[in-house]
Amino acid sequence: MPLLKAALFVGYVLAVGAALLRSGSSLGLTLGYLLICLAVLAVLSGTASFVRERLAP
């Protein structure tokens, strides 16, 4: 269940970031890119944590 919640959160953040990018304003572009970068970092962090957990003895 935590994985589903995390996936929904990342999807929501990506959707909001994409909507902000489409707004065209400079603030929207900045916030959109920041939100998309945040979502990518969250996915990478979660993947690294998952791999570390699986490889730990």
Verbal overview:
α1 runs antiparallel to α2 (26-55). The chain has helices at residues 2-23, 26-55. The protein is elongated, with a radius of gyration of 14 Å. It contains 2 helices and no strands. It has one domain (2-55). The longest helix is centred in the last third of the chain and has 30 residues, at 26-55.
What series of H and E elements makes up the topology?
A: HH
Q: How many structural domains can be distinguished in the coordinates?
A: 1
Strand residue percentage: under 5%
How many helices does DSSP assign? Answer: 2
Specify the overall morphology.
Answer: elongated
Helix content bin: over 70%
Number of strands: 0
Q: Biggest sheet, open or closed, and with what strands and sense?
A: none
- Overall mean pLDDT stands at 87
Radius of gyration: 14 Å
Low-confidence stretches: none
* Structural class by helix and strand composition: mainly alpha
The end-to-end span amounts to 24 Å
Transmembrane segments: 31-51
Keywords: Membrane, Transmembrane, Transmembrane helix
Q: How would you concisely characterize the structure shown here?
A:
The chain has 57 residues and is mainly α. It has helices spanning 2-23, 26-55. The chain has one domain.
SSE blueprint:
Layout: H1 2-23, H2 26-55
Helix pairs in contact: 1-2
Please give a handful of descriptors for the protein shown.
transmembrane, mainly alpha, 2 helices, 0% strand, transmembrane helix, elongated, 57 residues
